[in-house]
Amino acid sequence: MTREEAIKELNTFKIIAKSESGKKALDIAIQTLEQDLSRIPLQGWIPVSKRLPSEAKVYLVTTALDIGSGELVKDVYRDYFCNLSKKWLYHNNEVIAWMPLPAPYGENEE
Fold first, then answer.
1. 45: exposed, middle or buried (Cβ count in 10 Å: 0-12, 13-18, 19+)
2. Mind listing the pLDDT tens digit for each residue in 28-61?
3. What residues contact residue 76 under an 8 Å CB cut-off, 6+ apart?
4. Considering just the CA atoms, what is the radius of gyration of the chain in Å?
5. Nearest by Cα to 74 from 61, 58, 59
6. DSSP of 26-50, one letter per residue?
7. 8 A C-beta contact, residue 17 and residue 26
8. pLDDT of 72 strictly over 70
9. What's the confidence (pLDDT) of residue 37?
C-alpha cells in the first residue's frame, strides 16, 4: 500500500468513526502521512500507461499532441485529476505522464 492509498483509506474510516477521539486520531495520522509525502523528493514522471493517481487533486502532467507525420509535441501543465474516465485529457490533449506537485518553496530553502 502506498502512502497515498493509506491517506485515502484513513479518510474513509474518518467518515465512519464514531468517537471524536477516533476522528482526531485519524486526522493526526493523515496529517503525518501528508507531511511525510511533502518531504519525499520528486520521483520523476509516472507514465499513465503504468498507473493513474490514487486520489483526485492537482498534478503536473505531460501531454502529447500528434501534429501529423508521427511528430509529437509535448508540454507540461498543472491539471486536476478526478478519475471519471479511463483516458486523461488536458484540453483535448492526451496526458501521457504525471507526477505529484512538489512542496511549495520555503523561505529557509536555498
1. middle
2. 888 887 776 656 555 689 999 998 888 888 999 9
3. 60, 61, 62, 63
4. 17
5. 61
6. HHHHHHHHHHHHHHSPP---EETTT
7. yes
8. yes
9. 64
Residue 109 pLDDT grade (very low, low, confident, very high; cuts 50, 70, 90)? low
Distances (CA, A) of 106 to 54, 103, 110: 27, 9, 9
The overall average pLDDT reported for the chain is: 80
**Exposed (0-12), middle (13-18) or buried (19+): which is 52, by Cβ within 10 Å?**
middle
CB crowding 76-95: b at 16 or more within 10 Å, else e: eeebebeeeeeebebeebbb
Percent helix / strand / coil, the chain, rounded to 5:
30, 30, 40
- Does residue 27 surpass a pLDDT of 80? yes
In the chain the first and final C-alpha atoms are separated, in Å, by: 33
